[in-house]
Specification:
Elements: E1 11-16, H1 22-34, E2 38-43, H2 53-59, H3 77-84, E3 87-93, H4 95-103, H5 109-115, E4 121-125, H6 129-132, H7 135-146, E5 150-151, E6 155-158, E7 164-168, H8 172-185, E8 197-202, E9 207-208, E10 214-215, H9 222-233, E11 237-242, E12 254-257, H10 261-272, E13 277-280, E14 287-289, E15 308-310, H11 314-320, E16 327-334, H12 338-348, E17 353-358, E18 370-377, E19 380-389, H13 390-416
Parallel strand pairs: 1-2, 1-3, 3-4, 4-5, 8-11, 8-13, 11-12, 13-16, 16-17
Antiparallel strand pairs: 6-7, 9-10, 14-15, 17-18, 18-19
Helix pairs in contact: 1-8, 3-5, 4-7, 9-13
């Protein structure tokens, strides 16, 4: 006799759409069944071009449903499927199905079922990077979030055609974990930053030498954007101060474009004045030319003498003006003595958390889609995060921020006997 699993008695509709990642849906299906769920598969016509209905039917709890008119005994199958589900998960979810769901278009059995249910819905997007980052897709995802749809965001990795980037379907284990969380707690992603205002800086500043040339660094802004996206997914109202030309992360509507260290200082100080959490993920130039030329310097005139002066220390200024209850996070990109240098920065700049990484290591830091960091706090032992996608690193950073804020709340309650209010 089969032992009951954690999803025994739960009826899950698994929607599979037409993307190359459809093969991963088979593993999602197997894991759900192993956990005891009664899995009802629904495949679009596009999905049948990538995986066989016979395979899906053999592994599922009942034969696959593909079209509105396949079963004469059920004249309105989408209503039956939608009303009978405890949860619907779409993995993979293509840009077409996401758009149809957002617009309320009943184009096939799956979209009809999504519109005919009051059960929670988990959508797991998968598509090429250019599609995932398109403003229309980002807007569709944002609207679905506001309607209570749970989004399991794609990861970064190998895509169809040999490309590498964001848009890769989340791993089956992560998708199934999201199903468990929604069924157990009502949310796939913790909404532990609801009502919290967060400002994040991203990218590397550029200090002009002349009308053409700048002093810059290799920061791509990817880690800062991942932190902003994770904070937004968890309910925060996010202001992103950025030097890079990337699409705004899903859920982030307030993006302030800057270029120089001074511009970033002004933007971050203004944002931090209203923020509960300030995160300096940007790589800010330490020096700038005293007198940049307004015209292009010519090689024929010989090498110029460029006098440099220090830029403002934005993080130190944020630390000195930090309000009670505000959380301040810094980043430390190092090549030597990682922990010692990060500890010094943590102490001097009055930080609550510092995210330190060794940018000389393979796959770490600037321009990479992966990172490996050490999280350091004044009141805890360092925590090492091994090489992982930058969104996974962002998740660990936000987890640490939430823990810090909850710890401070607990202290405040002990001291005052009441629950503090975060504006």
């Amino acid at each position: 006799m089969t032992e009951p699993g954690p999803l025994t008695g739960r009826r899950v509709v698994l929607g599979i759409t037409g993307g190359i990642a459809a093969y991963k849906a088979v593993e999602v299906l197997r894991r759900l069944v192993d956990d005891g769920a009664h899995v009802v598969p629904v495949m679009t016509a596009g999905a049948e071009r990538f995986i066989g209905a016979t395979t899906v039917s053999a592994l599922a709890s009942e034969p696959v449903h593909t079209r509105l008119w396949d079963d004469p005994s059920t004249p309105i199958p989408h209503t039956a499927l939608g009303q009978g589900a405890d949860l619907i998960v779409v993995a993979p979810a293509t840009a077409r199905v996401i758009a149809a769901y957002r617009m309320g278009l009943s184009t096939d059995l799956l979209t009809n079922t999504l519109l005919a249910t009051r059960a929670p819905v988990v959508v797991c997007p998968a598509m090429h990077t250019e599609m995932w980052e398109h403003p229309a897709v980002a807007d569709n995802i944002s609207v679905l979030r506001t309607r209570g749809v749970h989004i399991v965001e794609p990861g970064v990795g190998r895509l169809a055609g040999g490309d590498v980037g964001a848009g890769r379907l989340a791993e089956p284990a992560d998708i199934v974990s999201a199903v468990h969380r929604v069924l157990d707690h009502g949310s796939a992603v913790p909404r532990d930053l609801l009502g919290t205002r967060v400002c994040v800086s991203a990218g590397g500043t550029r200090e002009p030498i002349d009308a053409v040339r700048v002093i810059a660094n290799r920061s791509s802004g990817k880690q800062g954007y991942a932190v902003a996206a994770e904070a937004a997914a968890r309910g925060a109202q996010v202001t992103l101060v950025s030097t890079v030309d990337l699409p705004a992360p899903s859920g982030v509507v307030d993006v302030v474009a800057v270029e120089t260290a001074e511009q970033m200082r002004a933007a971050m100080m203004a944002a931090a004045a209203q923020a509960d959490v300030a995160i300096m993920a940007a790589a800010v130039a330490d020096f700038r030319p005293v007198a940049p030329s307004s015209s292009k310097l010519k090689k024929r005139d010989g090498a110029p003498t460029i006098e440099l002066v220090p830029t403002a220390d934005i993080l130190a200024e944020l630390g000195s003006s930090k309000r009670p209850g505000q959380t301040l996070v810094g980043f430390a990109a190092e090549t030597d003595d990682l922990v010692a240098n990060a500890q010094d920065k943590l102490d001097r700049k009055q930080l609550d958390l510092i995210v330190a990484n060794d940018v000389s290591a393979d796959g770490v830091g600037f321009a990479h889609d992966t990172n490996a960091v050490t999280l350091m706090r004044p009141d805890a032992e360092p925590v090492e995060i091994d090489l992982a996608a930058k969104r996974d690193v962002a998740r660990a950073v936000i987890d640490a921020i939430v823990d810090i804020r909850q710890s401070h709340d607990a202290v405040d309650r002990t001291t005052t006997g009441s629950r503090p209010h975060h504006s």
